[in-house]
Amino acid sequence: MSTSSLGTIAITGASSGIGATYADRFAARGHGLVLIARRGDVLDALAARLRAAYGVAVRVVVADLTDPAALAAVEADLASDAGLTHLVNNAGVASVLPVAAMTPDQITAMVAINVTAPARLARAVIGGFKARGQGTLINLSSVVAVGPEILNGVYSGSKAFMLALSQSLRQELAGTGVHVQAVLPGATATDIWQTGGGDLSALPPDAVMSVDDLVDAALTGLDRGEFITIPPLAEEAEWTAYETARQAMLPNLSRREPAARYR
Ligand SMILES: NC(=O)c1ccc[n+]([C@@H]2O[C@H](COP(=O)([O-])OP(=O)(O)OC[C@H]3O[C@@H](n4cnc5c(N)ncnc54)[C@H](OP(=O)(O)O)[C@@H]3O)[C@@H](O)[C@H]2O)c1
Fold it and tell me: Is 231 near ligand 1, meaning CB less than 6 Å away?
């Protein structure tokens, strides 16, 4: 249960990288935290540091979110916390392998953590958010959601799922007081590259953002009430043009007759 007057923020994948940096920034703002990941020792150390540095309440939940029982327990935990104000749906794994080189189990595990867990956790919290008339859902997507040719197709598809989930939830939750933000990082210097079999040092340095800059930019976007935040994208007009083209096409995508060119 919450102890901060600002309410509690749950962060999945809080033991490293982007999630750990969100934890630091939200603690610095005075929010209580629920830190969720598998490595309890790392979460405990982070929690101790944040309590000492910022005087906030921090609770650790050790859970493998690919385990159905553990995921169900986290869902129940978050759904029952009346002080929960934000969920950062951040835990994830990546791969630089071609899809053909992945094992079936690798694909199953990636979908479980990148797709199933965030969708179920979003569902678990939005009921309470709606009932309280406020709440913020932050979904970590990626620029590969719109550039799937850049990386592994299952990973890119999972990040496109996070974008589509966010777009649809934004519509579903309009007028409820619940805010949805989709964050699309480009390459960011975290452990995910190494654990995904990649080599960050092989990328051009100009193409890799620090995790501090990424999260600070994402929070600037959040503070501005943005729905889509793409920290590396210099020209916002490029996204607007892309989105305008997509929206223009929507009324034309469901018809009784096949298009003339298919007849
Ligand atoms: N870094 C990038 O270039 C980049 C770019 C675009 C998007 N993203 C997205 O940003 C998010 C965070 O990634 P990151 O770069 O910060 O990577 P990271 O440093 O590797 O962190 C991943 C986090 O996910 C947790 N996690 C992984 N599997 C889990 C499981 N089965 N159950 C519970 N927690 C699990 C890890 O904790 P434990 O190992 O302790 O469980 C860790 O805290 C991901 O969704 C990723 O797709 C990253």
Answer: no
CA dihedral of 160, 162, 164, 167, whole degrees rounded to 10: -140
Centre of ligand 1 from the C-alpha of residue 258, in Å: 43
**Domain tally, the chain:** 1
Mean pLDDT of the chain: 97
191 in contact with ligand 1, CB cutoff 6 A: yes
Amino acid at position 65, single letter: L
Residue closest via CA to ligand 1's atom 41 equals 38
Interval 89-128: pLDDT, tens: 999 999 999 999 999 999 999 999 999 999 999 999 999 9
Alpha helix segments (H runs only) across 147-235:
153-172, 192-195, 211-223
Catalytic residues: 155
Decide if 2 is inside a domain.
no
In CATH, what number is assigned to the domain containing residue 211?
A: 3.40.50.720
With cut-offs at 50, 70 and 90, classify the pLDDT of residue 5.
confident
1 domain-assigned: no
